[in-house]
Amino acid sequence: MTDPPFHLRLATSGDARGCAFVHHTAWVETYSELLPRRHWETDTLSRRAESWRRRLDGGTAVTVAETGGQIFGFAMTTPARTIGAHEPVRELELSSLYVLAAHHGRGAGQALLDAVLRPDTPAQLWVLEENPRARRFYERNGFAADSARCLEESLSLTEVRHVR
Question: Which has the closest alpha carbon to 98: 30, 9, 41?
């Protein structure tokens, strides 16, 4: 039996809970071993849902991947940000790309990336240094780490900038 197909679409304000679920669950799946237990006291699904509600109601463009009416991934770009002491080196930034672990390896991450950022578009992104899976994915898509690193002090994690 093959996996059911997925499709991409722009998120609507009614997708806040689904985006929040993916965002929160992907963090749990990816960063649980890296983050202190106290982090999860405030990083709750309900807080993420409220943040997503504000974001989507405010018109932020987000592309979601879904199957069977359930969102399992999303991606978005924003104008590039200054992180720590590092000024942007590109105008555009891939600010988020998350896919639930159960859907890894099925092409959804690639489809989301291609939907929000054409392969020939110069851009930058920040990714946790201790996230080798994501870093390999971005490198396969033409991004390379530059010398920019920033310690996220509240989480004691280092982000590295990748540029294309």
Answer: 30
For residues 108 and 65, the answer to whether their CB atoms sit within 8 Å is yes
Computed on alpha carbons and rounded to an integer, the radius of gyration of the chain in Å comes to 16
The whole-angstrom separation of Cα 88 and Cα 111 is 25
Contact assessment for residue 8 and residue 63, using Cβ atoms and an 8 Å cutoff: yes
* Contact in structure between 70 and 19 (CB atoms under 8 Å): no
* DSSP letter (8 states) at residue 5: P
Q: Closest by alpha carbon to 72, among 43, 50, 102?
A: 102
Q: Which of 35-39, 120-124, 137-141 is predicted least confidently?
A: 35-39
CA dist 50 and 52 (Å) reads: 5
Tell me the pTM: 0.92
Q: Which helix (H) or strand (E) holds 124?
A: strand 124-128
Six token digits for residue 6:
């997925």
Q: What is the pLDDT of residues 101-119, one digit of tens each?
A: 999 999 999 999 999 999 9
Helices 16-31 and 45-57 sit at what angle, rounded to 10 degrees? 130
* Beta carbons of 158 and 152 less than 8 angstroms apart: yes
For the chain, give the number of residues.
164
